[in-house]
Amino acid sequence: MHKRSFLRTAIALGLLGASGLTMAQDNVFKIGLILPMTGQQATTGRQIEAAARLWMAQNGDTIAGKKVQLILKDDTSVPDVTRRLAQELVVNEKVNVLAGFGITPSALAVAPIATQSKTPLVVMAAATSSITEASPYVVRTSFTLPQAAVAMADWAPKNGIKNVVTLVTDYGPGLDAERFFKSRFEFNGGKVPEALRVPLRNPDFAPFLQKVRDLKPDALFVFVPSGAGAAVMKQFGERGMDKAGIRLIGTGDVTDDDQLNDMGDVALGVVTSHHYSAYHPSAANKKFVADFQKANKGMRPNFMAVGGYDGMRVIYEALKKTGGKGGGDALLAAMKGQIFESPRGPVFIDAQTRDVVHNIYLRKVEKKDGQLHNVEFDVIKDVKDPGKTK
Ligand code: VNL
Fold first, then answer.
1. Low-confidence ranges of the chain (pLDDT < 50)
2. Residue 193 class from Cβ within 10 Å (0-12 exposed, 13-18 middle, 19+ buried)?
3. How far apart are CA 259 and CA 233, in angstroms?
4. CATH topology identical between 28-143+281-354 and 146-274+361-383
5. In sequence order, which residues have a C-beta less than 8 Å from that of residue 290 and are 6 or more positions away?
6. For 28-143+281-354, which CATH class?
7. Ligand 1: distance of its center to the CA of 126 in Å?
8. Going by CA atoms, what residue is nearest to atom 5 of ligand 1?
């Protein structure tokens, strides 16, 4: 008989007293995974869910004698919905961990709940620098925009790019990307004559790209969230910007592995800076990509998948270390300082900032075995978030 149906039968027969029921509850470890499964950010939800399930398939669902239960909720990337779902998960489901968070406003909406309930909040996607400062219970396994943007601002001026227009999505991560790219690029002697911002919801890139065409900079630096890159690339090509001699550079969000292979030749040669490429040549990554594709009808994992996969590892290791005892504070303490090899390369969860420290790679889009890939050609090792004030 299944454990669940045994439990149900036992309850019906009155075989279990209150203590029996509590024990059954105590032996479950609940992860409340809140993701955008529908709407504009649905690709992020799909990638992270697939990665979390892959992690559990590879590592089992019984850890330190506890049954790990993943409770998936779709917040449609509307922060008010994220907040309500998190509240329900904490109060009704009594989850041990909150995880996921596709966009910055969703992560920020939940931070006060994590603080009040002392529930670790594992950010697997959102990447604005300040998120880790919104609650002492936040731990991040995604990345930060300043990490990626500064690397590009150092690379570009050494490679003939002196004059850059920036184009970012107008909210937390875009503003971080713009600010950190611009200040470092100018420090390096570059010029940024225009900083353009497009709205998060239903962006139309056409008028902005027309403006860039008229300004004719050496390059256009782009940040758009995962899932929006293909539209930018398409319009960039349609307007003949590449033929007009304007290069496209950016953080790796724009050449997202989820969409890259369908972007066509306009993407060839685009240089970006990021922490993960599905083409990263390590044994650990080759296995991750193969297993992920096998379990998901050939879908290529992107940087969101890796944030989800590593987030599950951080949760599992903390559960192993604490045996599930001591509640949220013990769990949080066991998450701090973890060091491991991720599919992206070496990862360290900084105990002071609770933020991820990892390599940032410079990559160029090339065709390999008939497919478009972000091929890494340089690396800056162990990059801490430059956005931290302390
Ligand atoms: C965020 C940052 C979202 C980078 C993204 O894709 C991204 C965010 C949804 O912090 O909201 O690629």
1. 1, 3, 6-7, 10-11, 14, 16-22
2. exposed
3. 11
4. yes
5. none
6. alpha beta
7. 5
8. 225
Residue of 143, 253, 257 best suited for mutating to test ligand 1, as the one with most atoms within 8 Å of CB: 253
The pLDDT of residue 8 is 53
Determine the distance separating the centroid of ligand 1 and the alpha carbon of 102, expressed in angstroms: 6
Q: What is the pLDDT of residue 173?
A: 98
CATH number of the 146-274+361-383 domain: 3.40.50.2300
Predicted pLDDT at 26: 76
> Residue 20: its pLDDT value, please?
46
Asked whether 226 lines ligand 1 (CB < 6 A), one says: yes
CA–CA gap between residue 224 and residue 10 (Å, rounded) = 53
Q: Which numbered atom of ligand 1 lies nearest the CA of 303?
A: 12
For residue 363 the two structure tokens come to 């990559």
Q: Tell whether ligand 1 has an atom less than 6 A from the beta carbon of residue 141.
A: no
Encoded tokens for 227: 């899932």
Give the pLDDT of residue 24.
58
Domain ranges of the chain: 28-143+281-354, 146-274+361-383
- Residue 41 CA: which ligand 1 atom is closest? 9
Q: Report the atom number in ligand 1 closest to the C-alpha of 44.
A: 9
